[in-house]
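User:
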Amino acid sequence: MATETQLLKGVLEGCILGLLKDEASYGYLIVEKLKAYGFQNIQEASVYPILKRLEKKELLQFEKRPSEVGPPRKYYLLTKQGEHMLETFIDNYKNIRKNVDNVFKEEIR
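Assistant: Predicted structure:
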C-alpha cells in the first residue's frame, strides 16, 4: 500500500512547477507556500533535492538575487521545458484524479 510520502513524491514536482509558473521564488519561500496550501509536513530537506533534480532536467533555471539577511538567494524560474512539463503534469493529474474519483465515487458519498 502506498504511503502518503510515496504518493507525494510525484505530486510535489508538479506542485513546485505550479508555484513557479507566474513568479520566481527561492527554496524556503517555496516550502512556506506549500505549507500554506496544506502540505504541513513538507521540510526544506525534501524540497531542495526536488529543485536540484528539476534544474538538472532543465525544467528550472535560477538567478541569484541579493538577500536582506545574508548571502544572495537562488531564485528559481520555469524554463520553456518546465512550462511544457507543467502543462503535461496538469493534464496527467486531472486524468488520474478523475479515474481515482470514479473508483471511489460510491464510497465517498
